[in-house]
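Sequence in, structure out. First:
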Amino acid sequence: MVIDRLGTAYRFDEFSISGHRGTLQNAHGQEVPLRPKALALLQLLLERPGRLALREELLETLWPNTAVSDDSLTQCVSDLRQAFGPRAPHILRTLPRRGYMLCADVEQLDLRAARQPRAPEPSTIEPSHDRERTASVVLVNKTHQHPEPDPGSRHMADTLATDLVTELASFEDLRIVPAQAAAANAFRVALDVRRTALLQRASLQLESLNGTVLWAERIEVPHGPAPELDDTQLGRLSINIVRQVNREDLRQARALPPASLTPRQLWLLGQDFHRRGTEGDTITAIDLLSQAIRLDPSFALGHAALSYAVQRSVTHGWGGMEPELARQHCLSHAQRAVQLEPGSPPCLARLAFALLLQDRWEEAIDTARAAVQSCRRPTWEALAPAGEVLVYAGHAAEAIILLRRILT
């Protein structure tokens, strides 16, 4: 038996099984290694919480038409107890010579149903709009279009194009698409490398598909056997491209009627209001971000941003929400974000701060460090909140190192 990777997911005690990844995650969203048979056993038990699963039935289901000893099942149970750690006695119960029972409360989620649009409240957003949560970018290498392209320029252009795709593909709110699959609202990054007497000059332009130039940057590299950009330059370029894409999408979103906004546009508007920092703007941000995740319940970055906005309302006592309820609201959205995207640095960073609000200090520190370890580039969204958690937890020297990464 195998985990249904696209169907059912479960949450229980401090753990979850990701339906789309088929893996076990702990409360921090970190993957807990399990052999396939142990994971399959866990799913069987999750399908019948509070009910006895007989040993004979489990052996027949897990090893159909195969002669195995009870030791195989015992080893799987041992694997599960080791994965659950100190929580094992609260989750799994052994009934001697009979079988096993999962004792924790279980929440079952049908991810296929969750991906379908939920009917929004009549007073908010019409249900017929686009459900996109990412921006689409087409990368065009114009160097090959020169009548007689220089081999060195072609080499640099090809290398730069490959490296940029690698960098841009790691952003959660952006995807690289082929030109033939691009929608009307996609963006184009045009790359052109030309040789001068002393150096290679690479020009990059961010354009709308109708050819309007939205941003441009030029990089110059001295001649050499293999002129290439270093990781710092590539990281800065990719961040600038994503920043400009988001800026243009936000500009367009401000001009649209509320009923036509996509989850991504609501997310961008919500973050824009949140950054203004007043009580009224924070409440508006919470409303916009709540609408975004109602339209797309599996929008991880939407849950993370909503957790952040609610966190501010907790800090300042804004919005009239009872403080303990607001803190729980903040935590639940951060946990949901990490369950949807376990390796996302911004989502992990928001969970770290939400755990801090609950005085769960050790978990907050571990989660903040997990956010840092998952972060390929020094982005403010991931490293700043992780650094704040470390400062509050008494690890100021570690936080200073993170802040220096952001500033350099």
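Second:
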Amino acid sequence: MKKITVLLFVAATAALSSCDYQKNNTVKQKDVNEGNERIYGVSPEAPARQLENKYEATPEDMARAAKVKETLYGK
């Protein structure tokens, strides 16, 4: 009976202490890229400029993707 009580106490303590687990798990440090438009765009809320590269798919890419899907999933 005593082992069950100790086990329940340990389980309850672990469950209650895990509620604020990430609360103090932070590191405050200076952002070395602050103001860098390549990373943050024109403002921190704007999308990053490095994400603007878009590539058009060629017919060879489409055929290769279809071949891979056929290999993985069959017809």
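Remark: DSSP finds three helices and no strands in the chain.
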